[in-house]
Design a protein that fits this description.
EC 3.1.21.10 (chains A, B), DNA-binding (chains A, B), five-stranded mixed sheet, 6 helices, Nucleotidyltransferase, domain 5, magnesium (chains A, B), alpha/beta, hydrolase (chains A, B), homodimer
Chain lengths: 197, 197
């Protein structure tokens, strides 16, 4: 029983999209990965429309159990932060329109989940993504590898209440799909039958 | 020949939506105004979906010639700025999907256009919106009045290149609808035949 997770690294120029199947053994397999977006000399409305069409097609093609997107912070002092937030809004609404639960993860959470260190650099994240997914090299460009890392992070965390955008604000399992519930139950059962500590 | 403009004051809790018909005499008439949004105890994905459905229905009902949305700044030090940016991204993509040209206006531009002062307070903007639209009182809440002010500002400015999100980045008239082109031509003709200065 695998949980199919779409990971999204939002952006106007390069929006990374990945699909990863995560088994309850934590084995993770890359199903597909791509980058959508437009050059910065395109008008803002055309750029956001390209993101919208890209995520719609991706979700309809892969029908994931969950979507994980990078949490964007307003104190990030980068000129691209507003465009990134606008793209993430479109991605989240596209998932919600399809009843797909949405989770937000910070870059630090993602780095810690895949490398063990919240301060890992891009190259280290890419290397670990390749290793986890049993690939010869990290997905290119870095936005694609980051999207895969987000999907792995979410798949491994399951439905951690604190990171959920879906369901009630306090979290809980109300926003889970049947596949997610089954997976959470399987994980609980595995814990119960595992070796005593 | 009136230009039908939808003005949007984006936000997750209260997203103001207004429809204003602006004639080339500058006479502006309020067609409809509403506020969509959800309370802050709703999950982010449900909130963004509510905005998405609200703007989709509004655009399909009113079929405007243009959409004007408030430009959101990343240096705005408010906890709601990221949600506002996410909502604005959804609104801009909804217009782009329908081929409706999008313009961004700053709060200062809007205040200056309707009151003559870029430093006007909310109450002054509301009073002038009521006066311009020949209403007994400003639309309530303030988000609705701000949306109407955005629509008036854009209708009066026409297709000012610097404020366009549509078309090429440098602006120009390539993103105009037939009605907008006719209106721009009428305005140019009115200038040519007007009194010499």
């Amino acid at each position: 029983m695998a949980l199919r997770v779409v990971g999204v690294d939002p952006g106007l120029t390069r929006c990374g999209l990945a699909v990863v199947d995560v088994e309850n053994t934590r084995r993770a397999t890359l199903v597909d990965v791509t980058v959508v977006g437009t050059s910065s000399d395109t008008s803002l409305d055309e750029r956001l429309l390209a993101i919208s069409r890209g995520i719609d097609a991706w979700l309809d093609q892969h029908r994931p159990d969950a979507l994980a997107v990078e949490r964007v912070f307003s104190h990030t002092n980068v000129s691209t932060v507003m465009g990134t937030a606008q793209a993430s809004g479109i991605v989240i609404a596209a998932a919600a329109a399809r009843g797909i639960p949405v989770a937000l993860h910070t870059p630090t959470e993602v780095k810690a989940a895949v490398t063990g260190s919240g301060r890992a650099d891009k190259a280290a994240v890419g290397r670990m993504v390749a290793k986890i997914l049993r690939l010869e090299a990290p997905p290119k460009p870095a936005d694609a590898a980051d999207a895969a890392a987000l999907a792995i992070t979410h798949g491994w965390r399951g439905a951690a209440p604190g990171s959920q955008a879906s369901g009630t604000k306090a979290g809980g399992s109300s926003g889970l799909t049947p596949a997610q519930r089954a997976w959470a139950q399987a994980e609980t059962a595995a814990r119960k039958t595992g070796p005593r500590r």
